[in-house]
Structures are given as C-alpha cells and as structure tokens.
Design goal:
Layout lengths: L1 H13 L2 H15 L5 H4 L2 H6 L11 E3 L2 H11 L3 E6 L7 H10 L1 H10 L1 E5 L18 E6 L5 E5 L13 H17 L44 H16 L18 E3 L7 E4 L4 H5 L7 E4 L2 E2 L3 H9 L7 E7 L4 E6 L23 E2 L5 H6 L9 E2 L2 E2 L4 H9 L6 E5 L2 E2 L4 H11 L5 E8 L2 E8 L3
Parallel strand pairs: 1-3, 2-3
Antiparallel strand pairs: 2-4, 4-5, 6-7, 8-9, 8-10, 10-11, 12-14, 13-15, 15-16, 15-17, 17-18
Helix pairs in contact: 7-8
Length: 454
C-alpha cells in the first residue's frame, strides 16, 4: 500500500506545472459551486420583473417554494419564505436589507435556514400560506412537514416600515430556531398557526380573481398577481356567497393596540405600555410583561399576536388568554367593536363598492394659502376624474370639476388624506347613496351632489 502511494508521489512530481494547475482549477470549481440550478429557482423571472434586491443573494431559492421544501427535508433546516411585491415602493428598503443588504440577516439565514424569495402568488398554496395579504412584505417560517413556526411582517396606517426592522426579524429568526429545536415536542403550541383550508388551492383557482390575472402565461411586472389581489378576489367571493360584504370581514389582523397593548416593535413580545381603560388594563396586564403564548400559540413576533387576534370574532363575550414569561395566564375580555381599526392603508379596499373614481391628493401649504384656507383646515384637490368609469362619469355629470377643492362631505370636514376619505365612504355609504360635496371653485363655495353608482 505504502509503496503504491510512493509511486503516485513520484508520478505527480513528473507532471508539468501547467497541467497540474489546470487539474487543481477544475477541482476548485467543482467544490465551490455556490448553488445548484434547482436551488436558484426561476432566475429568468427575476430579470423580467427587474428584481434588483435578488442580485448577489445566492442563499435564496427564487420563487420556487416546492424546491424550498425539498431542500428543507434534505437538510433538516427550517424554511424561511418571504413574500414580496417587487414593483411596490412600500417596504422597499426593508426588503433590500432582508434579501441581500444586511450581513447579519444573510449570515443567519444562509447558515440556519432554507430561504425562498417568493415574488408572485400564482402557484402559492393559499391554505398553507395564510397571512395578511395587504402587506407589501411578509415572512413565514415553517418546518419541512408544513408546520408553521411563526410569521413576521406588520403594517398599519402609520406606514409600511413602522413595525419591521432587521433587529426585529433577527429576534424572530432566533426564536424560530428554538421552536425548531424543540419540535415536535412543542407541537401543541404550533397547531393553531394553521387555519381551515380555503375553498381554492391557488390564486389561479379563484374564479373571482380579475380575469386579466387568471390568464396565466409568463409573469411580468404588468400581470403579476399581487398579494392584495387575493383579498380582492375574496371580497367578490363573499359577495357571491352572502349577497354582501360584511364590514366584519374587513377588520383583518388587528394590532395588539386594539386590545390596549403596545408591544415593543423590535422585541415583538414585550409590553411597553397598556392603554388606560382598555381591556388589557382591566385584565391586569402591565408594562414589562413578556408574552410567551396567546390562546396557547407560541409568540415570536407581533405578527403572531395578530394571527391569533385575526381569528377572534368582532362580537361580545370574547376573550384571549395571554401566557406570560412569569407563567401567569391573563384573560383579556373583548366586546363588539374591539376589532375595528383604520383600514385606509389597505390596498384591497380600493376594489370595494362604492367607488368614487376621483383622485384627490391633499393641498400643499402653498395651495392652501392661495385658496384662503386656515393652516389646520383639511382640504383635497380634485386632480383627476376617471371619465372612463361609471362612477367617474357620474361625478363629472353631477358637476364635479378638475381643480375643485373639496372641503366637506355631507357636512363633515374631509379627512387629511385621500385614502382615509376612500375608506370612510366605503364603510358609511352604499351604491345608490348620494354624496353632498362642498367644494371651493374660483374662490366661491359650491355644493355638488354626486351619486354613487358602482
């Protein structure tokens, strides 16, 4: 044996240097291939939709959840799936940090997780991947067997990045690793993280999805199924089933604030304030409390708290039970109205009737001054009327004109932002009602009565 090795050693010495270098180069290339073709996923899609954040991010499987599950089974690692609407500007900065910008996220994600960057909803299992589809960025953590560990990603009228941060995500990722290490012994605390199956498999099975989105074909920026399109289709489905869309279906994923809890946005579980006279104060919760479980489900983020609250009805005699790090169980009692909140930021409400079809941004300070308005007086400028729609035609026929300054609707001062007016109309009016709009035109106040027709 040793004599054979000695002969090999003498043979190598006689090899010319260029040949040896080529041989070593081939060996290095074979060993250091970063990601297999299967793991890369659909990189042609990345180019078509101009997803710059996916560049130099080889630890992500691109838009191929099935490949992610396969690799998670092979490696025994938990799955980290992000959902991102690439054309949307909201959450762009945070998405860039998660995808490739933050070295801390990259090191943790590449070492401990199987990562999938999902950028369209066409083939996504909507029963498994249930989250707030109005988010511009969302993350879910799963076991290879489909058990859900946690969700991350929260948004409100305060802005797309109000609750999300690199530090907060890393905290959640570390908690997920602990859950993964304890699985399946901790299975009881994870069971409720999956909800009942949806009536459809994927978005393409939804008959109420916009027809242009159901055509299929090659995905581009112009025909991508955005997450909020799922909620749009759900609205139309419920109208078909129930004959109307109940407002209770619109109070999705309420924040902890809805029950009187302010939770640290980075920690995701620590109570930093309790609202006076709120259900949480009545229950005895205090600043400094740490939430381990809510209704028996493990909490790794604010999004996990929202998931539980989302499934509690907006009715009387409800309660949620918070298990604190101290071991104490605290029951918070809730009554009708607890779930109602500002939904003006949600993209999915724009498709809900009644539709005004008029774009009215707020006046800037110079425009307000020129119009003779007070500094604290809300007003919206009629910038564009969609005359190609039924509602736009009705508004124009009623006498609304581009350049009008909207001051009041039915005697009430208009909200400061157009999306808030949009939400207010949808929650308080129906098709067939009429809006009495007080406008300022050429320095004179006029009343325009606009019928809501669609």
């Amino acid at each position: 044996m040793f004599a054979h090795a000695d002969k090999e050693s003498r043979l190598i010495k006689h090899l010319n240097a260029p040949f040896l270098k080529q041989l070593l180069l081939v060996a290095v290339v074979v060993v250091t291939l970063p990601v297999s073709a299967e793991d890369k996923g659909d990189r042609e899609l990345q180019k078509r939709i101009q997803d710059a954040h996916a560049e130099n991010a080889d630890h992500w499987i691109y838009n191929d959840i099935a490949a992610g599950f396969k690799k998670a089974k092979q490696t025994g690692k938990p799955l980290f799936v992000t959902f991102r609407c690439v054309p949307c500007k909201d959450c762009m900065g945070f998405d860039g940090e998660v995808a490739s910008g933050s070295e801390r996220v990259k090191l943790l994600a590449a070492d401990k997780f199987v990562c999938v960057r999902q950028v369209e909803m066409k083939g996504v299992d909507l029963s498994l991947f249930q989250f707030d589809h109005d988010l511009n960025w969302a993350g879910m953590f799963l076991n290879a067997d489909g058990t859900i560990y946690a969700r991350y990603g929260t948004q409100s009228e305060k802005g797309a990045d109000e609750y999300n941060s690199v530090e907060g995500l890393i905290n959640t990722m570390n908690r997920v690793l602990k859950l993964h290490a304890g699985y399946p012994r901790n299975g009881a605390t994870l069971k409720g993280k999956r909800a009942a199956k949806k009536p459809w498999g994927t978005a393409m099975d939804m008959k109420t999805l916009q027809p242009n989105l159901r055509k299929g074909g090659q995905t581009t920026r112009s025909n991508c199924i955005h997450c909020h399109n799922i909620h749009d289709a759900e609205h139309d489905y419920w109208i078909e089933q129930d004959g109307k869309l109940s407002h209770d279906r619109l109070w999705r994923y309420p924040l902890p604030e809805n029950i009187g809890l302010m939770v640290d946005k980075t920690n995701g579980r620590s109570v930093v304030a309790v609202a006076k006279d709120s259900p949480s104060e009545s229950a005895g919760l205090q600043t400094g409390d740490e939430i381990d479980l809510i209704n028996g489900q493990a909490v790794s983020s604010i999004a996990d708290i929202q998931w539980v609250l989302h499934h509690v009805p907006n009715s009387n005699n409800q309660q949620v039970v918070l298990t604190l790090a101290s071991g104490d169980d605290v029951a918070v009692k809730l009554n009708r109205g607890w779930k109602e909140t500002d939904i003006s930021w949600r993209g999915s409400i724009y498709s809900i009737s009644p539709r005004l079809r008029v774009w009215m941004p707020p006046l800037n300070s110079f425009q307000g001054k020129d119009a003779g308005l007070k500094d604290n007086e809300n007003a919206l400028l009629v910038k564009w009327i969609n005359r190609g729609s039924l509602a736009g035609k009705a508004a124009a026929k009623a006498g609304l004109k581009q350049g009008d300054i909207l001051l009041k609707v039915d005697g009430k001062e208009v909200p400061s932002l157009p999306q808030k007016l949009n939400a207010w109309i949808k929650l308080n009016y129906q098709v067939g009602d009429t809006l009495e709009m007080l406008v300022l035109r050429n320095g004179r106040e006029q009343t325009v009565r606009v019928p809501l027709v669609e």
